[in-house]
Amino acid sequence: MAYVISDSCISCGACAGACPVGAISDNGSKYEIDASVCISCGCCAGVCPVGAPSEE
Fold this sequence. Notes:
Layout lengths: L2 E3 L8 H5 L5 E3 L4 E3 L9 H5 L5 E3 L1
Antiparallel strand pairs: 1-4, 2-3
């Protein structure tokens, strides 16, 4: 199951840098995860300072 980023995202970009498959991009107001690319590894959740990414 793919990860999603909640509205608590502070747009720091830590998650995007940690994603091994490049599934995370900045949509202008927060980062978002492309579910078709996400491999559900949890790397993004591990580096997020506010816990915004979580499994869907």
